[in-house]
Design brief:
about 5% strand, mainly alpha
Length: about 80
């Protein structure tokens, strides 16, 4: 029996590459969403400002303008 055998369908190399591709895409998307919050923490923002940046980037991710605004807010001094 092959090592990657599930029922009557065998998992081949193409399926594994497809799974890796989607996992990498999810990881990159998650990193982009979390970038403003991470930058706010690295720039030493106090807790209320850091929480505001985090909420703005998470809640308004559908709006690119709000995400860019939260990225700017996280990096300004």
């Amino acid at each position: 029996m092959p090592p990657l055998f599930s029922g009557d369908k065998m998992i081949n190399t193409t399926d594994i590459i497809l799974i890796i591709k989607y996992a990498a895409g999810i990881a990159i998307t998650f990193g982009i969403i979390m970038a403003p919050a991470w930058l706010a923490r690295q720039n030493g923002r106090d807790k209320p400002q850091m929480m505001a940046v985090r909420l703005a980037s998470w809640v308004f991710i559908w709006s690119g303008i709000a995400w860019i605004w939260s990225l700017f807010w996280a990096t300004r001094k």
